[in-house]
Design brief:
The protein has 194 residues and is an alpha/beta fold. The chain has one domain (3-193): UDP-n-acetylglucosamine1-carboxyvinyl-transferase, Chain, CATH 3.65.10. It has 7 helices and 10 strands. Strand 2 (16-19), helix 1 and strand 3 form a beta-alpha-beta unit. Helix 1 runs parallel beside helix 2, helix 1 runs parallel beside helix 6 (148-157) and helix 2 (49-58) packs parallel to helix 3. It is globular, with a radius of gyration of 15 Å. It starts with a strand and ends with a strand. The relative contact order is 0.20.
Length: 194
């Protein structure tokens, strides 16, 4: 049975403060949210290497070639961030092991929602080349999702998509991470149906 998620921005003012330190999972979500929505601020910072790489790539300049270490979350969140940055160009690469991990379903989802993401070297794997686009969003069915990180990253950028996003899937691992993301988004003022 397909699951559905719908996201929209409330008409009221968005604001919030994340008090850190939190778990690495929460910190990475908070970093992406605060990078996309400047009215949301962070206090404190995680000392994990993955979070440091993510913070660095989120504050990089268009045209940079960014090394992300070994973190799958870092790659997926950075790809979502740069995909929604209209006019930006970015290359994202990680360790050899990270680059070898499959990412083709996620890239297909980003592109179907209006992004312009391509493979810089090997089809289906990082490094990724991203040309930021004003993503249109809309509906997309992901089938059997390999990682909840794919859906989490899409959830966070969905309110910036011109038509919002309605995402369905057949199966997904680690549903509690989606609930964590939904809670953080609600905390700063987004409406999330999950």
């Amino acid at each position: 049975m397909a699951e559905t998620i719908k996201l929209s921005k409330r008409t009221s003012h968005l604001s919030g403060t994340f008090e850190l330190p939190m778990s690495k999972s929460m910190v990475n979500r908070a970093l992406l949210i605060s990078a996309l929505y400047p009215q949301v601020t962070l206090k404190g910072m995680s000392t994990s290497k993955d979070s440091e790489y993510l913070a660095q790539v989120l504050s990089s300049y268009s045209g940079d070639d960014n090394y992300l270490g070994a973190g799958g979350t870092t790659l997926r969140f950075a790809a979502a961030y740069w995909a929604i940055q209209e006019g930006a160009q970015m290359t994202l690469r990680g360790t050899e092991k990270l680059n070898a991990r499959p990412i083709d379903h996620y890239v297909a989802a980003l592109n179907a929602l209006g992004a312009e993401v391509s493979y810089a070297e090997v089809d289906g794997q990082a490094p990724l080349f991203i040309q930021g686009a004003g993503m249109s969003g809309g509906q997309f069915h992901m089938g059997h999702v390999e990682s909840s990180q794919f859906v989490t990253a899409l959830m966070i950028i969905a309110p910036l998509m011109k038509n919002g996003m309605s995402l369905t899937w057949d199966s997904i691992p680690s549903t509690p991470y989606l609930l964590m993301t939904a809670a953080l988004l609600r905390q700063v003022g987004f409406e999330v149906e999950l």
